[in-house]
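Regression test case RT-17, inverse folding.

Input:
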């Protein structure tokens, strides 16, 4: 022990080389790691900027090389040499004796001009002095007389004082001294007038010499500019290249005010640093660059009104704008195939940013924030489709949705359902709507047969009796009814499958499709419904979820019936399919409905076709031949049971049927579903996924499957009462985008898209056109006109209103259109299709009038058409042109009570209405070339080729003469 103590090395002599080396290496490694972490891990944007600089430098160098090559080309060099030679000659002229002589002469003239101007200025100074003395001599009189008056105690303004002043002035003017002053003043003025011509001559000579010198120097300057212009692109590229090389990495930051709010709903400033990495997003030339340097695909459309400096990027794309890394900035669950798997996995673990970055069509959800006033946003078609689907399906009947607070119920009134519907049909309809109508807005609630009977029992028990109708139904002719249905316009809104054969180039469709789209019995329908209810999603990575059962992916069978699975979009699917009408209604109700739809349902959109009693009986008789009734035994007794009625009331209250339909007893019932006004930012942990473990825990997947198959989230303790609308995947995605746009954030007026009066007129007009399905018969804005396929020729089909060169607002006067929409009359007697009387309100008629006028660029809502005093000579010339000797206009056109010869099929509109109906300028346009405005029109073309013996053959005058004559007919 003592030996060891003696051999121990003292601390001050112990070697510490290894310890110092190890600690030094650790310090070096820590310093290196800190530098790496600061430059790479913590500031990855620096490398992105270096990459962008290299990319831009490469592009500029390539452009510079191309510019140099172009500059060194033989053609350019020949031009350069020519300009240089001309410049040398021009500079030689500047250095020559002529230029020097001109400069010397100019200098001499400028000196003479200065001397002469100075002489004149001296004389003017003397003149000013002389004028002062003349004026002062007169003023002295006033001072003297007023001073004397004050000394004498008199009023200086007294009349006698003023007389004394005038006398003094007269004496002064007549004095020799004053006359000498005036003479001196006139002499000075004459000296100035004598000198001014010489000064003007010198000034003109100076200007001439300056112009001569300028001409010599301008030639050289112009040549220098031309040489610089040839070199300018290269110079700009060189300066840009120098700027790129000298560019230092820096954070690009935009401060946005007013587009975000805090917890107290107060506007706050937000920071957006996206362009720190996305450096080429708003720059031309990087359209094919790799991400994140690529130019925005819609740069011109968006950045003109949405500059990055004002809106940033996160206003539309969301994400964490203040972040400077890919992971934190995007804050998204899916970044796409191009990012590394570890980055995507890291994003799934960091889901706490409330507004992760949008992808694909989801970006369109942001448009709603500022464009809420627009029903259709051109650059957001998916959002616009989703908004339209929500309006058509009536989602607001159960949910609170911003913008739909005053929307009307989308379903028909059930207050008088007993007089309309067959009880057996009601049960089948309630249980499975698509078994009767493959194309319907009515969703499937997956009710059992007992539940459907209970709902029908309540509706029938509480149905109000219908008022007696003046005339009763009697069977008519089904054949005549079929002819009427095919001609008067019913097929513009309704489908009848047996009439599909009347379409040009079509075949008859199946007559009894089921919900699955295949003809069959109710068992097949129930089986299809059960399979749809059990559909589960597959957890495929990076793919849109597909229906599956217990993890097994299954594609739904495509429907055999065209349109099955789609929601109403207008046209012949606007109204119900009438192919099985006999199984639904009764002839007595149908007759009364055809005669006066508003009598049964005051809020209906169904127009009045102004049918006669016999016409209505014939159509009702025909429709009652379509389909067959089914009378299950014992159903009538079950519908009378009080227990069924009570169960039905409970079911209606639970399922919220009153959200779409008027039902007696539920007039004040509250909406049954959650408020969706702020659903777009609802956190995932507040969404109920039930036991659907196959659905990924994201907002997007939850909404997709909630709309695809609401029952997927059902558990034993949490039943799901939302019905199945049978939406396609495209429709689901559209509604999902709209729901994502539901964010309760106040937007400053500076960011709101406010519509102009014309835009409001067009938007509201389109809404009313869709409400009444005007495009079912007419072509408007290149859409609609479906009913025309049932007619043998375009001339006997409803006319287009807005198509090509034809503009209804350019054609007719707004006042007449407003009045005619309220009380339509026959304008084209040859048409078997008739314009019905729609239940338009005064405001709706005004809006439609504005709409057509706005589309045509005319004044609205009303534009007074000034009917001027027509020239008797022109009116007489027009009368001759319209006579039998020339154009024979009244062989086709009606003129008040004067009817043309021949059958009505060959008649044309009444020209006596033109004064109130047509715009004068349009008449001239129409007469000049009718086929250009409306191809296929019956109106022949008379111009060019007008007669030579009227108005000297001047066709423009002849057109005006016809216009004046037609516009004067209403006065006769």
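Golden output:
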């Amino acid at each position: 022990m003592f030996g060891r103590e003696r051999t121990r090395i003292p601390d001050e002599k112990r070697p510490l080389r290894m310890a110092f080396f190890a600690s030094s290496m650790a310090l070096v490694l820590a310093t290196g790691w800190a530098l790496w972490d600061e430059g790479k891990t913590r500031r990855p944007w620096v490398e992105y900027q270096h990459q962008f600089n290299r990319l831009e430098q490469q592009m500029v160098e390539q452009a510079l090389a191309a510019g140099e090559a172009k500059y060194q080309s033989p053609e350019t060099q020949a031009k350069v040499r020519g300009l240089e030679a001309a410049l040398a000659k021009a500079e030689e002229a500047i250095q020559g004796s002529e230029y020097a002589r001109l400069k010397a002469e100019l200098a001499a003239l400028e000196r003479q001009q200065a001397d002469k101007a100075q002489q004149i200025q001296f004389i003017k100074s003397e003149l000013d002095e002389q004028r002062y003395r003349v004026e002062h001599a007169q003023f002295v009189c006033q001072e003297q007389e007023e001073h004397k008056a004050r000394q004498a105690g008199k009023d200086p303004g007294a009349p006698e004082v003023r007389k004394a002043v005038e006398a003094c002035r007269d004496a002064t003017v007549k004095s020799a001294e004053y006359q000498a002053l005036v003479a001196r003043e006139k002499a000075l003025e004459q000296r100035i007038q004598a000198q001014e011509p010489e000064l003007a001559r010198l000034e003109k000579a100076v200007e001439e010499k300056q112009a001569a010198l300028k001409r010599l120097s301008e030639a050289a300057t112009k040549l220098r500019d031309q040489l610089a212009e040839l070199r300018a692109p290269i110079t700009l590229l060189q300066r840009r290249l120098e700027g790129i090389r000298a560019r230092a990495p820096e954070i690009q930051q935009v401060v946005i005010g007013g587009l975000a709010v805090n917890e107290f709903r107060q506007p706050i400033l937000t920071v957006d640093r996206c362009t720190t990495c996305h450096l080429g997003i708003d720059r031309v030339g990087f359209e094919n660059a790799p991400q994140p340097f690529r130019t925005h695909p819609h740069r011109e459309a968006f950045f003109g009104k949405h500059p990055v400096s004002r809106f940033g990027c996160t206003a539309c794309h969301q994400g964490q704008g203040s972040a400077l890394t890919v992971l934190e900035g995007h804050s998204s669950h899916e970044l796409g195939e191009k990012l590394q798997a570890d980055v995507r996995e890291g994003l799934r673990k960091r889901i706490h940013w409330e507004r992760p970055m949008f992808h694909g069509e989801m970006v369109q959800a942001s448009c709603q924030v500022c464009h809420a006033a627009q029903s259709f946003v051109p650059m957001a078609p998916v959002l616009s489709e989703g908004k339209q689907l929500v309006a058509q399906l009536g989602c607001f009947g159960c949910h609170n949705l911003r913008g739909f607070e005053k929307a009307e119920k989308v379903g028909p009134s059930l207050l008088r359902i007993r007089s309309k519907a067959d009880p057996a049909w009601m049960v089948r309809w309630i249980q499975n709507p698509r078994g009767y109508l493959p194309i319907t807005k009515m969703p499937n609630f997956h009710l059992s047969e007992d539940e459907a009977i209970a709902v029908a029992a309540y509706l029938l028990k509480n149905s109000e009796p219908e008022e007696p109708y003046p005339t009763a139904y009697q069977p008519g002719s089904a054949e005549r009814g079929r002819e009427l249905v095919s001609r008067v316009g019913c097929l513009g809104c309704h489908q009848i499958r047996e009439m599909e054969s009347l379409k040009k180039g079509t075949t008859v469709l199946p007559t009894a499709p089921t919900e699955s789209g295949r003809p069959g019995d109710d068992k097949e329908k129930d089986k299809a419904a059960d399979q749809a209810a059990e559909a589960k999603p597959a957890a495929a990575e990076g793919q849109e979820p597909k229906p599956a059962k217990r993890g097994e992916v299954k594609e739904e069978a495509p429907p055999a019936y065209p349109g099955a699975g789609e929601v109403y979009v207008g046209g012949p699917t606007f109204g119900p399919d009438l192919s099985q009408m006999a199984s639904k209604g009764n002839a007595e109700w149908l007759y009364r409905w055809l005669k006066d739809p508003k009598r049964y349902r005051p809020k209906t959109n169904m127009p009045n076709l102004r049918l006669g009693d016999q016409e209505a009986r014939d159509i009702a008789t025909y429709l009652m031949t379509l389909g067959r009734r089914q009378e299950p035994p014992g159903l009538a007794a079950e519908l009378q049971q009080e227990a069924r009625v009570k169960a039905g009331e409970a079911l209606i209250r639970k399922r919220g049927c009153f959200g779409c339909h008027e039902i007696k007893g539920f007039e004040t019932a509250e909406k049954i579903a959650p408020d969706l006004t702020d659903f777009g930012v609802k956190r995932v942990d507040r969404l109920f996924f039930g036991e659907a473990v196959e659905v990924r825990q994201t907002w997007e997947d939850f909404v997709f499957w909630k709309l695809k198959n609401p029952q997927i989230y059902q558990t034993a303790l949490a039943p799901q009462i939302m019905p199945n609308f049978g939406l396609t995947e495209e429709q689901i995605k559209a509604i999902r985008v709209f729901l994502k746009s539901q964010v309760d954030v106040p937007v400053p007026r500076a960011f709101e898209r406010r519509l102009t009066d014309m835009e409001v007129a067009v938007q509201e007009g389109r809404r009313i056109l869709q409400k009444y399905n005007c495009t079912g018969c007419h072509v408007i804005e290149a859409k609609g006109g479906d009913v025309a396929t049932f007619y043998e020729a375009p001339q006997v089909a409803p006319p287009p209103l807005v198509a090509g060169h034809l503009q209804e607002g350019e054609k007719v006067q707004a006042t007449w259109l407003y009045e005619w929409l309220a009380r339509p009359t026959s304008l084209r007697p040859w048409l078997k299709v008739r314009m019905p009387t729609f239940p338009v309100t005064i405001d709706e008629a005004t809006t439609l009038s504005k709409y057509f006028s706005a589309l045509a660029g005319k004044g609205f809502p009303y534009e007074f058409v000034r009917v001027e005093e027509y020239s008797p000579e022109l009116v007489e010339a027009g009368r001759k042109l319209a006579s039998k000797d020339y154009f024979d206009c009244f062989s086709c056109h009606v003129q008040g009570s004067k009817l043309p010869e021949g059958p009505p099929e060959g008649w044309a509109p009444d020209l006596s209405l033109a004064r109130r109906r047509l715009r004068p300028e349009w008449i001239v346009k129409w007469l000049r070339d009718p086929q250009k405005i409306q191809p296929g029109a019956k109106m022949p073309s008379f111009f060019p080729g007008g007669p030579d013996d009227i108005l000297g053959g001047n066709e423009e005058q002849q057109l005006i003469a016809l216009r004046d004559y037609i516009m004067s007919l209403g006065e006769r």
